[in-house]
What we know:
This protein has about 190 residues and is mainly alpha-helical. Helix content is about 50%, strand content about 10%. The protein contains nine helices and four strands, in the order αβααβααβααααβ. The longest helix has 21 residues, at about 150-170.
Amino acid sequence: MASDLIAGYVGQTALKVTEQVETILHQGGGILFIDEAYGLTNAGKTSGGGDFGKDAVNVLIKAMDDYRDRLCVIMAGYPKEMDDFVTKSNPGLKSRIAFYIDFPDYSTDELIQILELHAGRIGYEIEPAAIKKIRSHLPTIDMKTEGNGRYIRNLLERAERWQNLRIYEAGKQAEEQVSLIHVLKVEDFMF
C-alpha cells in the first residue's frame, strides 16, 4: 500500500522509500508493488502533510530511472485515480511508465466462483437458493465503489455473522442446526 511508504514527517518519507528500493536491490533486484499508488500524493491532504507523498514520488522516479534494469515498480489502483496520479503528481512520472494494464472488474460468474472458493476454504457450503439470490443481487452493485472482490469478502463475512445469529436464535444448537452449521442459507445473505 502507498501508505506503507509515507512517514510521519517531511524528509522521512524519502528515506522510507529509499530503504524499500535498497532492500530490493540488495536482493539482486525485483519488484516494488504499490497498491493504491495515488495514495502517495493523497497522503496528508486532510492533515496538512501533502509534501510527504511528493518526496515518495520523487524518490521513486529517480529509482525507476537509475535502476531500470533491476527494479520494476508496479503501481495499481482505480483507473481514474491512477490517471490523475500519473499525470498530475510529477511531470516526469508518465514518461517513466513503460505500459499500462487495465484489469476489468470480475463478472458475476467470477464473483460467484470467488465466493464459493472462499466459503469452501473456511469450511462452508452455500445453498443453491443463496447463490441464486446473490447472482441476481450482484449486477445491482456499483463495483467501482464497492471494491469488486472485496465486496464478496465482506458479503461472506456478513453471511457468517447472520448465520451465527440464526443458529443462536434457533435455540441451544438443536441437533438439526448442528448438522447444518457448515451451510450458509439464503437468509444468511442480507443486502
